[in-house]
Structure to design on (196 residues):
């Protein structure tokens, strides 16, 4: 169960980190205060909860349950308001679909998984070997750098894709026609010079 929650939180966080302005737009559409700030804080919370699910599974499940409950409350409020907006919860995977009771149901199912993660293991701090903590800390740094670089590369790829599509659109509407390129001479074939 925790693995599914981890994958969902990782996907949601990475998609928000890659396109923070889009995430902020979704949060504004949902009527949340300070959407630009939330677009930065929510993915950080999702990553932190995902790490907690790995390091301290039961406590991570409690954190996931709380986070999902907050998200679900926002979704229920949005559905009840009748507004037709997308939550952008899973970025492009949501395909811009408006929030519905189906979206709420998805979150409730994730909350049930988190609750199962809480119920199965006992809520106690595990005995932790100092070497394990050191190894986890050494791995976390490079993984965070790789995640940030991947997010930046995805953002650059997105911007280049938009730039390329704008460039192609401009060429097709205002650029030279293929016929002009094939025949650069004026009509009649004359170069304007008299050849002997």
């Amino acid at each position: 169960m925790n693995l599914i929650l981890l994958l969902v939180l990782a996907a949601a966080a990475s998609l928000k980190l890659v396109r923070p302005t889009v995430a902020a737009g979704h949060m504004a559409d949902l009527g949340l205060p300070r959407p630009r700030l939330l677009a930065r804080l929510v993915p950080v919370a999702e990553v932190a909860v995902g790490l907690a699910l790995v390091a301290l599974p039961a406590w991570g499940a409690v954190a996931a349950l709380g986070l999902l409950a907050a998200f679900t409350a926002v979704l229920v409020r949005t559905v009840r308001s009748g507004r037709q907006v997308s939550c952008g919860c899973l970025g492009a995977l949501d395909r811009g679909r408006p929030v519905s009771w189906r979206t709420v149901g998805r979150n409730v199912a994730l909350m049930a998984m988190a609750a199962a993660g809480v119920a199965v293991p006992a809520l106690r701090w595990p005995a932790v070997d100092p070497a394990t903590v050191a190894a986890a800390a050494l791995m976390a740094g490079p993984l965070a750098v790789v995640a940030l670089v991947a997010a930046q590369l995805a953002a650059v790829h997105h911007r280049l894709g938009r730039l390329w599509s704008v460039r192609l659109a401009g060429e097709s509407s205002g650029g030279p026609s293929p016929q002009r390129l094939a025949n650069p001479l004026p009509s009649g074939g004359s170069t304007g010079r008299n050849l002997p």
Observations:
- DSSP finds seven helices and no strands in the chain.
- The CA atoms of residues 8 and 90 lie 8 Å apart.
- The helical segments are 2-18, 20-29, 35-55, 57-81, 101-119, 130-174, 178-182.
